[in-house]
Structure of Fe2OG dioxygenase domain-containing protein:
Amino acid sequence: MISPEVTPDIPIANLETISYDKLLEADSQEIAKLVENCKSLGFFYLNLTGTARRVLDDSNSVFRVMEDYFDQPLNAKLEDARQSVTHGYTPIGTYTGAKKGEKDCYETLKVSHAEMKIHDPQLPATVKTHMNLFENFIFGSHTIVIKLLESLSTGLGLAGEQRFEKRHCDDVPSRTTMVLFRYPRQLTEGGGIGHNMHTDIGSLTLLFCRDYGLQILSPSTNQWGFVIPKPGHAVINVGDSLRFLSGHQLASCVHRVLPITERQEHNRYSIAYFLRPDDNVIYVDSKGRQLSARTWHDEKYETFREPHERQEKDAILTGGMERNGVFV
């Protein structure tokens, strides 16, 4: 495990830092900086060391819980499998990996915002045991990403029902979900690797990670760069749905996850909160089709399972932002 204070000799992605506290204060310069970043790269650090410190602390506690969870035998984890892309456990090798011809090498546990609100009886036992922690973390994360939407709406001059937060209502079904990821240590080469390149399906992603592995494709150079884990900060990125809702003004950046060496040399963990629009929201996608946010979500998840050859024939995986590793 490489300390975030030590930068390895690898290509690095340069990300801007946005202050969450300044957005809470409606600081016009910070809002303008946020909008400009989301129009160009769509990836940035969010400083959470002030008002949102509780979410940072909760993320550290979630990391400890998920280490114990993923260390369980596979049969125990499969008890939480619900054949769902928004709920429960998904094993390694379910989707196409980051290298051609190979499967992925990560496992996940998903808890949706909706099932947490009602304390769904099917919640995993680990979540039930730590209910207060997961409630605080999920609802705290939700508050942060909604504030980002409000700031973007203000910065873009949106009003009334056109504001982004109006398409993300608590009382309307959506695919908004927290996902816990483990990329397990690989003792030998082979057996799949990483997380294939893609753009995120939803509106905004709030990501906590302690280790290197996340790479973004630079729109200006078409080169991959690793994101430095930054203590006290989350990594935020714009997803397809927010790009479509903005009339394609905002950028949904292509990214992937790979180890910095030939194989994953230690267990790598990350926590993502995926904010997605209300299921019934209608927008125009990268193909010019008018469709619902739910339809885009379901179509894209099916694409994650397709072999590389089929993925390359359809730009849905990268949201129409990329062709053959080059931005379009």
About this structure: Residues 169 and 208 are 24 Å apart (CA to CA). The mean pLDDT is 94. The chain has one domain: 17-321. The first helix runs from residue 20 to 24.
